[in-house]
Amino acid sequence: MNKHDFYKEIMMQYTFDESKIRKNAKRASSASFFARNAKWMPLTAAAAVIVMFFGGYMLLGLFADGGIIDPPLPNYNIVSDEDRMNDIIYREEMILANGFSSEKKEMYISFAEPMTLEELDSVLNLIAPEDGAVMAVALWNGEFVDVAATTESADNRLFSGARIIAYDDLYFELRDRPEFTAVEFQGGLINNDNFRPIALPHNNNNSAIPLPNIEEPVTPDPADLNDPILDPPFEPANPNNPNNPDNPSDPTEPNNPDNPSDPAEPNDPNNPPDPAEPNDPDNPNEPNEPTEPVEEDFIELNIDSALGVHFINENKFVLLTRSQVLLYEIVKNADGRHSFKAVEGFVAVNPRITYTDAKTGTLLIIGGDAFGRLTNLYMADGESGVLRQLETSDILQEHGQISYALFRNNEIVMKTQTPNISAIYTANRNSGYSFSNLIKSEDNLIVLSLTNSGFIYAQVSENGELRTYEYNARFFNIEEIDMGLASLGRDFSFRRSPDAGNFAVISDGIAYIWNAELATLTDYGIEAGYIRFHRNSGSMFNDGDNNWYILRGMQILPSTESEAERIQRPEFSEAFRLLEITPAVVRIEILT
Amino acid sequence: MDSNIPETLTNSPRDINDYFNAVYADTFQAVSRYVVSKCGNILDSEDILQNIYTRFFSRINKKGYSDIESSEAFLINIAKFECKNYFGALKRRSKTSSFSDYSEEQMVEIEAEMSRHEKKLEDVLCNELLARQIFDDITNDDPVTGKIFYMHFVLDMKLDEIANELELNLSSVKNKLYRTIERQKKKFNI
Question: Per the structure, how many domains does chain B have?
Fold first, then answer.
């Protein structure tokens, strides 16, 4: 093989998975056009209408227990964007097949960014400078405004769409303008009453954003709900130990001080909570009203079965409910008031945070399918502000579950479990977070600690034999490391810190602490059957009686209750803060 | 109608499946070439291709395909739509002149080396971790390098064709390609 063929093989193998694209095209097409991540859920007796979720707008019906997320726009016969795009493609085919009539036709245009009438005229003049070949008739900003009306008032209002008249053979030039996202002929699906701009994902980073789709959310049986606890999962080394049943579905939120301590009561379907009105649809924002400062201490979102709110950057937060993972953006309207804009959403039963990256705010979230099996993994990227579902269906297939997933330096380490096989997968940003299998074993694999170049894991056999290994991504190898655990006997358990750095090994009532910085396991003489790391710090832990702080070097020091309280969760927004969360309402305080 | 695509009048699910598979095999190279040249980062191109073929399958499933004269033209049309809306407005790169780091003699030498048989390359390919690392290194370098590698090695495009397609000057394409090859030689000992 020469290098030419070598690079050809490398690029062919890893750029596209041709068979996957072909397979998914047919599979996705039969479910929903854009939603490769759609999960169909069975309807319950009181189930909701199908919800299509897109951009800043949500078409919705009532959920089974009565929650409303955003009010529907009144008197709108809303056509889905999927159908509109299909219609656009179809009409283009007809044009290509039959040609143009060279007659003037009315068209609806969606803008990529809001613009004034003057800016629109400039764009149209580029296409057809001759008088009358193309002209704007009306502009859209919640409703159509005749062009004559705007020129009379001579204001600089911004609009998001327009209705124009143009020779139909200018269609492709209009369509290809970067200022426009879509051009639709009148007489199709769209008319003056139901037009709204197609707001396709606007992504400055050019990274993939799957179009959101929420369908038929399932309200889980309250009897199945577990109390959230605030520690990383407790992992028994020996899965056969009857005292420590392996419980990969233990819902934990290690970095979630906002989580209510009691499970939420399901809402009474006969008495639903009041709908939220963050944006009053009867009074759309009037951009030309005087912009006096508005005093607003907090904003409120009515939501059903809220579990937790986590800001990932300045103005975006992830909201977990009993049946969904949602990404919201807080926006400031022209009148100075803030409102919530629903950005993305996925159906997931009892989702929980499995990892929070303290540097970037990035979250990894695990959620269940319709049967409660933990099969869904979501990533809310603090840097790009994107929520996405990561592909795990091929990995888990029929019987697998995700135990947990950890994240550091744009790398994800995920452990999965089927009845007989434990496996560790890795994925990184460069591969689009596509998972590849690293290790599979009939023994129990436990990821103990993330290192700068990989991770440390334990492999525990059925008879309790323990070996520890370090995976180094830089040198692509796995090396056994001796932590001195062989002398501990057969009955031990591990506790991982929230940042997956330090960890504890508990055996025979003694806690041994792994100092990640020094790569040493040390007996500090702590007698404890149980260790809990601080939810916001991997350097502090509690042994049941005392708090301890792991210093640089070999020492640990006792730490007081007040010192523990002072360690706060890193904040990823300076402008907003969660004020209150109940199962029905989320209140966000406005700090700036 | 396309030469290799079966003609059928029934539009049954099986016929649609056969038609789709045939079109997919027939058009993938052309469509992927278009997408790779338009995308910002080659790692996004798989998502776009997925959208294109999903949309295509949905269309023929609902409305049949008897009216499709040229499946490749049809798919490229969809690709234009998908690429445009996937990335918003692509900034036009201004053409500035630059000098290649490599003289003609050096490039000839590199190309000669590329043509030499080396047993260890097969071993490297079999080491999935290492092979993946090499791929990641190419695509991580800068968004264009991955596209250049794909277009040159998979699509067999000449460097001046690539420069034209990507609206770069030829010396930039050469720099990115040869610099990456030389760097990987040292980094991965290949």
Answer: 2
